[in-house]
Write a structure and sequence with these properties.
Elements lengths: L4 E6 L5 E7 L4 E5 L10 H7 L4 E5 L16 H14 L5 E6 L1 H13 L4 E7 L15 H5 L5 H12 L5 H10 L8 H11 L4 H12 L14 E6 L6 H10 L4 E5 L7 H4 L1 H12 L14 E2 L1
Parallel strand pairs: 3-4, 3-5, 5-6, 6-7, 7-8, 8-9
Antiparallel strand pairs: 1-2, 2-4
Helix pairs in contact: 2-3, 5-6, 5-8
């Protein structure tokens, strides 16, 4: 196991962001999803620190970062990561994202035109999460947009209601993100990591995240991109297929065995193998039809 170091960066609005780092070499940034933490990238830190300088970030309010009462929006978190990249002088960054971390990558691209990014790895996030009533038949299914607005409004209201059992609500929300074979200890640990983000802030951020539509950003991405989904994920595999089809030259992989929304934890060998193969592919060789074969 590589020596994992802790550090922090202070944003322009005075928020201390905690990060983990290990290894040396090209820069690889691990970006967690909604309410997730840097520590949940443990298996990826161990693997990729063999060849890269790996940095895993706790977003504001998450993990071991400060918990201000402001800034729980996708655009602000993307700006935070822009500042992390500059403060640590990361260059030619491989941005590896889970869930909402993909939305942060798209927001970063929208705001900063992919500044300092060399590659993207996007795992398990639709370009649109909320189904719209005016869409033509079949569009929601093709995009993998899985939530109705009323459904997500109930979750957000429960998270933000001080009288509600937000811990039980969070546990139920997370349960759908594992396969039935997931270890109970892992489930409890991840739940505890999630609850480090105060539920009021979690509700604000979830609402902002689900209301975004990134379809106009995807065709503008110009770096080699790996898009992954999970066969067993709560996110339909159509989401990964749609995202990969929209990004020029993107590679598509669907994780099969234990391919849950938390496949990077449940099946790190398969997840890491696909990322490693992508990193070993020359950038000039990415063009062409996306691959769609299942991964183990």
């Amino acid at each position: 196991m590589h020596d994992v170091r802790r550090g922090s960066v202070t944003t322009n609005d005075g928020v201390r962001l905690h990060y983990l780092e290990a290894g040396s070499g090209p820069d690889l940034l691990l970006v967690p999803g909604w309410s997730q933490t840097a520590a949940q990238w443990r298996h990826q830190i161990e693997e990729f620190a063999r060849t890269h300088h790996v940095v895993a970030v706790d977003h504001r309010g998450h993990g071991d970062s400060d918990r201000p009462d402001h800034g729980y929006r996708v655009a602000r978190l993307a700006r935070d990561l822009h500042q992390v990249i500059h403060r640590l002088d990361l260059t030619d960054v491989v941005w590896v994202a889970h869930s909402m971390g993909c939305a942060l990558a798209w927001s970063y691209w929208d705001l900063f035109a992919g500044e300092r990014l060399a590659r993207l790895v996007l795992f398990d996030e639709p370009a649109v999460l909320i189904r719209q009533p005016y869409w033509p038949d079949g569009l929601a299914e093709r995009l993998g947009a899985l939530y109705g607005l009323g459904q997500i409004a109930d979750v957000v209201a429960g998270l933000r209601d001080p009288g509600a059992d937000a811990e039980a609500l969070t546990a139920g929300f997370l349960d759908a993100m594992w396969t039935p074979a997931a270890d109970d200890g892992d489930r409890r640990w991840v739940l505890a990591r999630n609850l480090l983000l105060p539920r009021e802030y979690a509700g604000r951020l979830l609402l902002d995240n689900v209301m975004q539509d990134w379809r106009d950003v995807l065709p503008a991405i110009t770096v080699p991109t790996l898009v992954m989904g999970g066969r067993d994920s709560v996110i339909p595999t159509a989401a990964a297929r749609s995202v990969a089809a929209a990004i020029p030259g993107a590679t598509l992989r669907i994780l099969s065995e234990r391919g849950s929304h938390f496949a990077f934890w449940e099946n790190p060998a398969a997840f890491n193998r696909e990322v490693r193969a992508f990193l070993d592919t020359p950038a000039s060789g990415r063009a062409g039809a996306p691959g769609s074969g299942p991964a183990g």
